[in-house]
Amino acid sequence: MPTLIRWTGQAAVAAEDPFTAVADEDFVPRGDVIVSLQRFQNEGQRLLAEGRKVGVRIEPNEQVEELAESLQRIALVALAFPKFLTGIAYSSARILRERYRYQGEIRAVGDVLREQARFMVRCGFDTFQPADGSTPDEWGHVVGRFRHVYQRAADGREPAFEERRA
Amino acid sequence: MYRYDTIDKEMLADRVAEFREQCRRRLSGELTEDQFKRLRLMNGLYLQLHAYMLRIAIPYGALTSAQLRKLGYIVRTYDKGYGHFTTRTNIQLHWIKLKVAPDILAHLAEVGMHAIQTSGNDIRNITADPHAGVNADEVDDPRIWAEAMRQWSTFHPEFSFLPRKFKIAVTASPSDRAATKVYDIGLRLHRNDAGELGFEVLVGGGLGRTPYLGPTIRQHLPVRHLLSYLQAILRVYNRYGRRDNIWKARIKVLVASLGAEGFAREVEAEWESSDKAAVDLPDEELARIRAAFAPRDFETLPARSAAFEAAKADPAFARFARHNVKPHKIPGYAIVDVSLKKPGETPGDCSGEQMELIADLGERYSQDEIRVSYEQNLILPHVKLDDLPAVHKALGALGLDTPNRGLITDIIACPGLDYCALANARAIPIAQAIALKFADPAKAELVGELGIRISGCINACGHHHVGAIGILGVDKKGEEFYQVTLGGSPEAEASLGQVLGPALPANRVADAIDQMVEVYLRERQGGERFLDTFRRTGLAPFKEAVYADAH
Question: Which residues does chain B have with pLDDT short of 70?
């Protein structure tokens, strides 16, 4: 069972993961599931009708705009980092939070490393499956390392130019 | 000059602490070199052929005397006594030990300097016209906007893992001294017919393997929307730029594939659906930054200085005045170019003692300001005409009075294979050989304005594509060869050079330059520069002269 870390807004804590990530070729088990975009488009109505929570995994070549109509019913969007350098998901997360006002969980999956944590939190990710064995403490340390930020993002932190106004 | 406030300083302190911890984890073996690589590359620390190289940012090329003096201290304490100013107005230290790198960052932070985003696929150091604030013809001070962009781009959460590195340059003067047409984003400040300040936005210029001049995607962006518009451009790039092939990952490839109009439509659509007010700086913050660059207290001086005119009786000073002294917008003042291109030396290299001398001169004679130009020279921007003889004499004491700004010996060169792990060939010895051929200042002056630019590989750090003469190092079966291009220019009417012919072996390059200069001197009409003559005659006479032996 991979570790799941949740950022609460103040701290990073270990979290239970009620979701099962389901590969396209596998049968959908009972309970809460995360499926691919394509599978969601084909089977989403049925899966949701079964009264479970459904999450959708978005790959870098897929656009979050495709989920626009369904976001109210989706409990989780998993944004994939095939390599840590593939930074498309940072934009996807901000669009979900800031343009669509998405309130559900945004999860970072794939090559998710501690040094990316503060960027991910700022862009609106709230759960993480670290690929480097990071503990919640280590994760929280990195997220909280910088006292200031220079720009607004999805985390609501006050940027330097607002701090200066005070 | 912008001075870092408490917030800016705490940002740097947090960065130093972070990097110190990362280095400790590497030195203790907790991190492998491979794991450490992705961390150090976000701190401007490269592993080169012989040692670590630290690239220090000099935002918009502006330094105070205290900052330059600190750089001098650092190169004397932690390196071999010199540093290398680059075509991105940064400075590189080529002989760094890992265990002292955090200490260097701590020293830099004391004077408001850092190595943030001098590497990695992020928004790099913002460059600006080195004559900003001094130009008579500028419509605004581009440093205000460069500083706004520096802050906005620092640790940007969305744009720290772009498809590739990303470079922005800004100018506010019709004579483009920031090479905005060859940048990922070039910004040209101007006023529209209604007198309002705005940016002409150029996107997708760049050199490297596939050179492009950036097309304009918006003629007039109101200045207050700069950051939200940049966010839109960067977001389109981050989402749709190619990541499958490093050679096709720069934004220029995306712009070329969508076409300038298609790309502009994507940007405008993204911009219109974004919350501009959340991104753009409030007026108070812009006013705060603007105040930091407020015009200096200049004395009221006569436009003509008797001391300056009298000193021209000395031919060496007169030559220096002709080439390295430029008009200042305030009467009685001048801009002084300090050449780091003494023939035989490495272009852009500066010793710790030289840095300290220039820092002293900046403090005493130039209102505590020094600028770095992308041509790898330094500038004292506010020198009184009366003080020019004293400044010239002081510079001469450490070999900094070479009167060659813009001349054939003012060669731009990347570090090349002497240092860089990416290079195919050496650049420095080629520059030295050419400069020594024209070491006689009278000969260099006779040839006049001629920009030679040398890159040791296709990454084009030496901007060879936009040299009137460009030289590119290539590897042919393990031997260094050099491809020559003619007719490039980085100025407002920018152009890319054309290939002269087959690449030349190293020992032929300086002679070939000599032969081409002879052609130019023979063919030139009136006041034509080398570039003008080339544009009129084309390649043929130059090609004939260089390859005559081959026929």
Answer: 550-551
Q: Which residues in chain A are closer than 8 Å to B147, comparing Cβ atoms?
A: none
Q: For residue B491, what are the CA distances in angstroms to B91, B326, B537?
A: 23, 17, 20
Largest CA distance in chain A: 56
Give the closest of A91, A147, A160 to B238, CB-based.
Answer: A91
| Dihedral pair phi/psi, residue B521, rounded to 5° | -65, -30
- How many CB atoms neighbour CB B438 within 10 A? 25
Instruction: Return the ∠ at Cα A50 (arms to A49 and A51), rounded to 5°.
Output: 90
CB B419 within 8 A of CB B460: no
Single-letter residue type at B547: Y
> pTM value?
0.94
Q: Does B292 touch chain A (CB under 8 A)?
A: no
Look at A94 and B38 and tell me if their CB atoms are within 8 Å.
no
Measuring CA to CA, how many Å separate B140 from each of B129, B175, B315, B331, B368? 11, 14, 37, 19, 21
Q: What is the DSSP string of B265-276?
A: HHHHHHHHTS-H
Q: B8 to chain A: which residues are within 8 Å by CB? A: 160
**Closest to B157 (Cβ–Cβ): which among A90, A92, A161?**
A90
Q: To probe the interface with A, which of B7, B42, B147, B242 has the most A CB atoms within 10 Å?
A: B7
Contact status, residue A74 vs residue A55, Cβ threshold 8 Å? yes
Question: Tell me, what amino acid is at B363?
Answer: E
In 3D space, the residue among B112, B115, B109, B80 whose CA is nearest the CA of residue B96 turns out to be B80
- In degrees and rounded to multiples of 5, residue B339 shows phi and psi of -80, 130
Contacts of A133 in chain B (CB under 8 A): none
Q: Which residues of B touch A120 (CB under 8 A)?
A: 157
Query: B480 to chain A, minimum CA–CA distance in Å?
Result: 33
pLDDT digits (tens, 9 = 90+) for B483-539: 999 999 988 788 999 999 999 999 999 999 999 999 999 999 999 999 999 999 999
